[in-house]
Each structure stands twice: as C-alpha cells, then as structure tokens.
Specification:
345 residues, mainly alpha, Rossmann fold, Tyrosyl-Transfer RNA Synthetase, 3-stranded parallel β-sheet, two-stranded parallel ribbon, 13 helices, 5 strands, globular, binds adenosine monophosphate, binds tryptophan
Length: 345
C-alpha cells in the first residue's frame, strides 16, 4: 500500500460485452490513471446478482471482463485488478453500510427507480403494502450500500465514474461522513468522484440523442470493442448525420456529426472542434473515423484473443491477494470502531 499516491477505485459489471463508450469513457482512462495513482479496479460480480442471472452466466461474464481489462492495457502488477466476490470483506462491509444507510436515502436513487421500473415496477397495493414482483430483489434496492462498501474498503480518495454514478458516490460520501461523526474521525476515508469531461460521452450511432449502451438502442448504433473491422466500417458508414451537409462540432444542433467528431477525436487524441475544420463532407469524416477506430481497437482485439484462461486466472489471483492485503486491515479497523466484539486473536 502506497501512502504517498492517492488511491483510485472503480468498478465495472461483468456484462459480457464492452462497447466503445465503455472504452473511451472509462477503461482507457483507467489505463492512464494506473501510472498516476494507486489504482484498484474491481469486477463487481456481486452487483451483477441484483438482476436475475442464469447459472454460469456471471462466471463467464467475469472471465470475459477480466480478459478485456488486461487487453485494454491494465497491468496486474501495476494496478490491482480483482473480482469482488473473491474478497469477502465486500459482503461484510456491505451489510454494515446497509445498517448505516437510511431506507429513504436508498429510495431516492434514480438507478433503482429506473431498473425496477424496467422490471415491471413495485406495484404498491392500495393499503401501502408492497406486492412487488419477485424479480425486483432487495439487493437491487441496497445495491448502492454495497457500492459504498466497495469504495470505503480501500480507503479510496478518488472514484472515476460516468455521470450516471454520481448519485451513488455522493451517497458514499454521506455515509462516510456519518460513520466518522458517529464512530470517530478517520474511521473511513471520505472519497471524491471524478467525472470525465463532457467529451467522454459516446452516443449511439443510430440515435445520437442517446448514450451508447448495452441495454438501450440498436445494435447497429453500438460499436463493440471486439467488432470486426468490416462491422465497424459498416456501422460508422450508416451512422445517422443530418441533411445540411456541413461539418461542424455542435452537440445541440448536430448530434450525429458531433458524435463522429468526438469519436475521431477520442481515437486520435485530437480536439473535435479543430477536427471539424479539416472536413467539408460527411463521407471522408466517416472513412477517417472508421479507420481511426479500427486502428485503435486492433491491438486490444489481438491481445484479447491471445490471452489464455490461465493468464486471466493468474492475473486475478495476483489481484485478489493485493486487494485482500488492503481490505483486511481496513475491515478490522472499521469493525473495531463500530464496536463489534473482537475474536481476541
Ligand atoms: P456500464 O456499461 O453502464 O456498466 O458502464 C461502465 C463504465 O463505462 C462506467 O464508468 C460508465 O460511466 C462508462 N460508460 C458507459 N457508457 C458510456 C458512454 N456511452 N460514453 C461514455 N462512457 C460510458
Ligand atoms: N455501480 C457501478 C456501475 O454500474 C459499478 C460499481 C460497483 C462501482 N461498485 C463500484 C463503480 C465502486 C465505482 C466504485 O457502473
């Protein structure tokens, strides 16, 4: 554990696929941060259980996500890359945080409202009793308490997440301040979030008013990191633009063209506004964007396919050991501070 460098912690769900938005908005940033800060990245398989899953699905998704984290350039010797359920202190602190979080606080979380709505809603009865649909688990409701535990367990200073996770990190801060005021300053570290700049929001190519996402929007509008070059070319060629044929960076009025400029800018580390000046037509912009994305993803794809299962397992074992070495003393400190009887060992 490095005392000098600030610690960064982030988590990603083990859903089977990773798209260009995940890469440009999150994973690429993680690979840079690992050289600046003490970086801990967690595949949150226990969070994945909050929605119904088939047997085996989570393990398979976890392997694929771990392989992807290595393929994008996270180094298991530099960062700590691990699986949440491999470090049981997450579940332990998750329970304690649940007991220190208000029902009302969790009720305000928009992600719970959105996800439970998508599962058919809570169907509260006339008498106020919740006759909720069994697929809306209690875990979906207490999800943010487990997320807060993830963060607090590593004495985290900074949490890089997308805008959609701002509310959960704010809840974590509130809980951390409460723990310190009830059980003593320094019981936990109060974290801050770091939301990437606005440019890190990749939009769906077919619906440029919507975020590129795994669950929402058409497949044709989502570029997967593992898409073949031909698929990438086709998707970008068919990307929705507009009729006025002017290349200008203007997210409000020209969302499709601006999204292509942002993607090209992201892939070539160039400012999208200045890129706009080099184009007068959509055709060449699309060709160059496709070429840049294909070139950016090629080494990641090659690495993804060259890693064996044993390489992935080895990396996760290193990660679990490193994570445990941090989480265990922090958990002991919190256990003592809140007043649980020690085992005497
Ligand atoms: P998710 O796919 O929602 O599990 O998100 C994983 C990470 O990718 C989070 O840090 C998100 O904020 C980020 N992310 C997801 N979709 C996008 C997008 N379209 N543009 C930029 N970042 C994204
Ligand atoms: N809830 C986050 C998401 O859906 C994933 C996550 C779980 C996370 N625990 C975390 C992110 C801790 C940051 C820190 O994207």
């Amino acid at each position: 554990m490095s005392a000098q460098r600030p610690r960064v912690f982030s988590g990603i769900q083990p859903s089977g696929s990773t798209h260009l938005g995940n890469y440009l908005g999150a994973l690429r940033n993680w690979t840079h941060l690992q050289h600046e800060m003490d970086s801990v990245y967690c595949i949150v398989d226990m969070h994945a259980l909050t929605l119904p899953k088939e047997p085996g699905e989570v393990a398979e998704g976890t392997m694929t996500m771990a392989r992807m984290l290595l393929a994008v350039g996270l180094d298991p010797e530099v960062s700590t890359i691990f699986v949440q359920s491999h470090v049981p202190q997450h579940a332990e602190l998750g329970w304690i945080v649940q007991c220190l979080t208000g029902f009302g606080e969790l009720r305000r979380m928009t992600q719970f409202k959105d996800k439970s709505e998508r599962l058919g809603g809570l169907n509260e009865g006339d008498d106020g009793s919740a006759r909720s649909n069994a697929s809306i688990s209690a875990g979906l409701f207490t999800y943010p308490a487990l997320q807060a535990a993830d963060i607090l367990l590593y004495d985290t200073d900074v949490v890089p997440v997308g805008d959609d996770q701002r509310q959960h990190v704010e809840l974590t801060r509130d809980v951390a301040l409460r723990i310190n005021s009830r059980f003593g300053e320094g019981t936990v570290v109060v974290p801050e979030h770091r939301i990437p700049p606005a440019g890190a929001r990749v939009m769906n190519l077919q619906r440029p008013d919507q975020k590129m996402s795994k669950s929402v929007g058409s497949e044709a509008g989502t570029i997967e990191v593992l898409d073949e070059p031909k698929q990438i070319e086709k998707k970008i060629k068919r990307a929705v633009t507009d009729n006025d044929a002017e290349v200008r960076f203007d997210v409000q009025n020209k969302p499709g063209v601006s999204n292509l400029l942002s993607i090209l800018g992201g892939a070539t580390s160039t400012d999208p506004e200045s890129l706009a000046a080099s184009y007068t037509q959509y055709g060449p912009l699309k060709v160059d964007t496709a070429t840049a994305v294909i070139e950016m993803l090629a080494p990641i794809q090659a690495r993804f396919h060259s890693l064996s299962d044993a390489d992935v397992h080895d990396a996760l074992t290193i990660g679990r050991n490193k994570a445990h070495a941090v989480a265990n003393p922090v958990m002991n400190r919190i256990r003592t501070a809140i007043g649980l009887l020690s085992t005497g060992q």
